[in-house]
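Re: that chain you flagged

S.,

Sorry for the slow reply, it's been a week of failed gels. I finally had a moment to sit down with the sequence you sent. For the record, here it is as I used it:
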Amino acid sequence: MNQDLSDLTALADEHLAAARTAPHGRSAHLVLHDGVLRQTVIALKAGTALDEHNAPPAASLQVLTGRVRLTTHGWADELPTGALRMIPKERHGLTAVDDCVVLLTAVND
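Prediction finished late last night. Pasting the structure tokens below so you have them in one place:
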């Protein structure tokens, strides 16, 4: 069986460095894509946000470094390094409290 092997620590470092100099303060890389499954490393400079967007059918967010705030209408949850959380089914946004890197795992139909 041939499987891709990615070094998440190296990817996190690389994309955080890129986010710090990017005009929009973010950098992302699709790590795995297998049918409906996608895993993406997303790096955000402190204060940068991913505006509210629709949720995939199923998703989780793991904070690899830093802290983020996951928000929906009338609700927010701050997640520290190491946190793993299901993504809400409703529209949501993500804001970097600190410089951070997250791993988004999503199943799209």
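What I noticed first: The chain has one helix and nine strands.

Talk soon,
D.
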